[in-house]
Amino acid sequence: MARKKQEVEIINDANENAILNKETEGLSQGQIVLRRFIRHRAAMISVVVLFTLIAVVYTSLDWRIGDEKDPFVIPGWWKYGFEDMPELRYGADCVGDSIGCPTIDAVPFFDGDGIALGPHPFGQDDIGRDYLALVMRGAQRSLLVMFIIGAIAATLGTVIGSIAGYFRGWVDAILMRLVDFIITVPVIIIGSVIGFHFGNKGAAFLALL
């Protein structure tokens, strides 16, 4: 019984491989990879989420291009910039506090009383800067670093993997042990220490890790 079941599974696998070979016949390697990627539901959902995040983040703040004194401005959908310092606003529970609290305004809603996000839905820091604008600015930098580090990692990984696969032997062993060491390094802890000691410059050291 078990042998027949195994034979059936082998036949099914062979049929699936034959169908896949027929579908990909005449296609280049890139076309095959693209087709499989498009058919992968989780991958497509991830792409949609990523591009939505990029669109929201990079269109939120004004873009200033050209001369600093008279730049060409591409307006964003959020009214404050990350360097703007409007008047501090306080919520009902923040009277006398030096930090601007998140604001919620009462507005007419369907002929009744409703609520809406106020001028600073995330609040303000101690000098009046809008937290939402700061979050968008931080997200822009994070995405940029992500793409740069991803490109560097992919390039180094391809080069190291190619060298290890070509020479094999002791070269392969040394490179793989080096990769294993890098994987086991607690990057978060090291990054925290570097950030504490080097401040803003610590981002460059962390990127190298």
What does this structure look like?
The chain contains 7 helices and 4 strands. Helix 6 runs antiparallel to helix 7. It has a domain of 57 residues. The strands form 2 sheets. The protein has a two-stranded antiparallel sheet. A two-stranded antiparallel ribbon has the order 3-4. The termini are far apart. The protein is mainly α and 209 residues long. 5% of the residues are buried.
Summarize the topology:
Blueprint: H1 2-23, H2 29-39, H3 41-58, E1 63-65, E2 72-74, E3 104-109, E4 112-117, H4 131-167, H5 169-184, H6 187-198, H7 202-208
Antiparallel strand pairs: 1-2, 3-4
Helix pairs in contact: 4-5, 6-7
Query: Class by helix and strand content?
Result: mainly alpha
Sheet of most strands? 2 strands, antiparallel
Q: How many H/I helical runs?
A: 7
Helix and strand pattern: HHHEEEEHHHH
Residue fraction in strands: 5-15%
N- to C-terminal distance: 54 Å
Low-confidence segments, given as residue ranges, are none
Q: Portion of residues in helices?
A: 55-70%
Number of strands: 4
Q: Overall 3D geometry?
A: extended
Query: What's the alpha carbon Rg, rounded to whole Å?
Result: 27 Å
Give the mean pLDDT.
76
Strand order of the largest sheet: 1-2
Essential attributes:
single chain, 209 residues, mainly alpha, two-stranded antiparallel sheet, 4 strands, 9% strand
